[in-house]
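Deliverable D2.4 — example input (structure tokens):
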């Protein structure tokens, strides 16, 4: 479904059940599959997909890329649900896996310099693509990736040291 059709149906969604059904039938399956792949839980994926479609009733804006928009909404709702359920931060990783980080782990980012910390935070916590991060920070996307890669290697090396592993496990040093 193209964006023009999506937006036309979206305007009718509050009073036309068939408009809702058409959008739902087009996007619910792919969204559910994406959430199951990212977060691994079928029941929660179904709940989040339903919540995404309920939120469409309140949407007032037009959408240029419907699938991207719905996927982003679903991912953010999944992260919020995880935080609420577990009191932890769920961070989607590029390859579709998910990493659970306890709140103390965010503190380890403070060991990075300002630029790498911003890039890692924006990419892994806020889910910005490297191209957008590069634009925000005035650099090339390749440079942003390199800085992020080096920062992650530094964090990995730090986490291999016992005192930093304890931060992630929530133990005292």
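Example output (designed residues):
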């Amino acid at each position: 479904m193209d964006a023009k059709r999506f937006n036309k149906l979206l305007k009718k969604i509050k009073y036309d059940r068939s408009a809702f059904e058409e959008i739902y039938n087009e996007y619910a399956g792919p969204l559910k599959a994406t959430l199951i792949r990212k977060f691994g839980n079928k029941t929660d994926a179904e709940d989040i997909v339903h919540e995404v479609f309920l939120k469409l009733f309140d949407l007032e804006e037009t959408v240029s890329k419907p699938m991207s928009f719905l996927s982003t909404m679903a991912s953010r709702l999944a992260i919020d649900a995880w935080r609420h359920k577990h009191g932890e931060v769920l961070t989607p990783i590029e390859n579709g896996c998910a990493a659970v980080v306890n709140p103390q782990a965010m503190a380890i980012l403070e060991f990075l310099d300002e630029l790498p910390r911003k890039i890692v935070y924006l990419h892994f916590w806020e889910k910005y693509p490297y191209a957008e991060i590069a634009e925000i920070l005035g650099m090339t996307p390749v440079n942003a990736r390199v800085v992020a890669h080096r920062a992650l290697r530094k964090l990995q090396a730090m986490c291999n040291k016992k005192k930093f592993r304890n931060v992630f496990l929530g133990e005292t040093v």
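Confidence is low (pLDDT under 50) at residues 92-102, 165-173.
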